[in-house]
């Protein structure tokens, strides 16, 4: 395709998006609903099993009651560094109210908490992209 043809195509696509905004919005809404169902069902099931889901609910309720500071409405310093705390971190999902206010990067650095079952979190083994042995045979 020549640059003129590409420009014309882009112009037409933009026009189409403007004219069919509602139709496309509806399409993408449905598309992402399906996408979310497919990709997050496993993760949310895991969160329910580990106790993370329950603990988050308890913290949310406690904030609503006013027994814990809301981190979006108050400026709280991170426990580990100087940044502003964004989330409450659980170290043990058996103790839903033992939380520390941390920033997002410290939360990521801290890693996974102890699960409701008392076992440490184990990451699922990664799927192999390719086998070295099969590559050597090629
Ligand atoms: Zn921090």
Describe this protein's structure.
This protein has helices at residues 3-19, 21-50, 52-65, 104-110, 132-137, and strands spanning 87-90, 99-102. It has 138 residues and is mainly alpha-helical. It has one domain. It has a two-stranded antiparallel ribbon with strand order 1-2. The longest helix has 30 residues, at 21-50. The site of zinc ion has 8 residues, from helix 4.
- Count of DSSP strands: 2
The percentage helix is 40-55%
Give the H and E element order: HHHEEHH
Largest sheet: 2 strands, antiparallel
User: What percentage of the residues does DSSP assign to strands (E)?
Assistant: 5-15%
Low-confidence stretches: none
Question: What are the main properties of this structure?
Answer:
138 residues; mainly alpha; two-stranded antiparallel sheet; elongated; binds zinc ion
What's this entry about, in short?
With 138 residues, the chain is mainly alpha-helical. Helix content is 54%, strand content 6%. β1 and β2 (99-102) form a beta hairpin.
Secondary structure topology:
Layout: H1 3-19, H2 21-50, H3 52-65, E1 87-90, E2 99-102, H4 104-110, H5 132-137
The structure holds zinc ion.
């Amino acid at each position: 395709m020549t640059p003129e043809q590409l420009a014309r195509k882009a112009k037409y696509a933009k026009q189409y998006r403007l004219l069919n905004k509602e139709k496309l919005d509806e399409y993408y809404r449905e598309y992402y609903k399906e996408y979310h169902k497919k990709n997050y069902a496993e993760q949310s099931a895991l969160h329910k099993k580990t106790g993370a889901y329950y603990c988050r609910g308890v913290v949310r309720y406690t904030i609503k009651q006013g027994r814990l500071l809301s981190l979006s409405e108050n400026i709280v310093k991170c426990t580990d560094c100087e940044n502003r705390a964004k989330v409450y971190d659980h170290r043990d999902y058996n103790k839903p109210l033992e939380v520390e206010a941390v920033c997002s990067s410290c939360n990521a650095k801290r890693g996974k908490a102890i699960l409701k079952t008392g076992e440490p979190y184990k990451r699922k083994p990664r799927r192999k992209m390719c086998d070295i042995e099969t590559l050597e045979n090629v």
